[in-house]
């Protein structure tokens, strides 16, 4: 069962962290699902990932080759049309739903949330309770000190 790693953003937007998380996952040979809640935001992330430093091959869900994409950007909750099925790493953004059952086959689940948004904080806390309550090991990472630190 993969760990759930919670990334508490306080200083930078998700757009700065995502290439790092995706890059490390790809270096490990993992297939990644980047799951969001808003199609327009995912389209903007699609553009940003193509234009960023380095090459992160990916695609938006709904294309003919979803199953072949090394990184698939999806919208919705757990189990939507099986778009991200087979991903080794699930990165959930903007409060996207993560079912505890998805953690069992995954190498890692990353939950990225905006610490300056009270609703995002509440959602992340609920996800922490849900996942740890189901037996998923969880880690909390914060950028409060200006760099990413694992908190205990």
Tell me the strand percentage band.
25-35%
Alpha-carbon distance between the termini? Answer: 20 Å
The total strand number stands at 8
Order of helices and strands: EHEHEEEHEHEE
Largest sheet: 8 strands, mixed
Largest sheet strand order = 3-4-2-5-6-1-7-8
User: Uncertain spans, ≥5 residues at pLDDT below 50?
Assistant: none
Q: How many alpha or pi helices? A: 4
Question: Helix share of residues?
Answer: 25-40%
What is the residue-mean pLDDT, rounded to a whole number?
A: 88
Shape: globular
Question: Which class of secondary structure composition applies to the elements?
Answer: alpha/beta
Rg, Å, rounded: 14 Å
Describe the protein.
- With 152 residues, the chain is of the alpha/beta class.
- The protein contains four helices and eight strands.
- The protein has helices spanning 14-27, 39-51, 100-103, 118-133, and strands at residues 3-9, 32-36, 59-60, 71-75, 89-93, 108-114, 138-142, 149-151.
- An eight-stranded mixed beta sheet has the order 3-4-2-5-6-1-7-8, with helices on both faces.
- It is globular and about 40 Å long.
- The two termini are 20 Å apart.
- The mean pLDDT is 88.
Defining key terms:
single chain; 152 residues; alpha/beta; eight-stranded mixed beta sheet; 8 strands; 31% helix
List the helices and strands and how they pair.
Elements: E1 3-9, H1 14-27, E2 32-36, H2 39-51, E3 59-60, E4 71-75, E5 89-93, H3 100-103, E6 108-114, H4 118-133, E7 138-142, E8 149-151
Parallel strand pairs: 1-6, 1-7, 2-4, 2-5, 3-4, 5-6
Antiparallel strand pairs: 7-8
């Amino acid at each position: 069962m993969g760990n759930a790693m919670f990334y508490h953003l306080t200083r930078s937007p998700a757009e700065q962290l995502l290439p790092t998380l995706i890059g490390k996952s790809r270096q490990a040979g993992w297939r990644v699902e980047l799951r969001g809640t808003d199609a327009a935001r995912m389209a903007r992330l699609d553009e940003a990932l193509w234009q960023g430093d380095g090459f992160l091959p990916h695609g938006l869900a709904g294309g003919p080759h979803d199953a072949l994409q090394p990184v698939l950007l999806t919208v919705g909750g757990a189990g939507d049309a099986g778009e991200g099925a087979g991903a080794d790493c699930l990165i959930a953004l903007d409060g996207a739903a993560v079912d505890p059952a998805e953690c069992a086959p995954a190498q890692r689940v990353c939950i990225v949330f905006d610490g300056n948004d009270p609703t995002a904080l509440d959602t992340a806390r609920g996800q922490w309770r849900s996942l740890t309550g189901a037996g998923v090991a969880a880690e909390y990472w914060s950028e409060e000190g200006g760099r990413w630190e694992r908190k205990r």
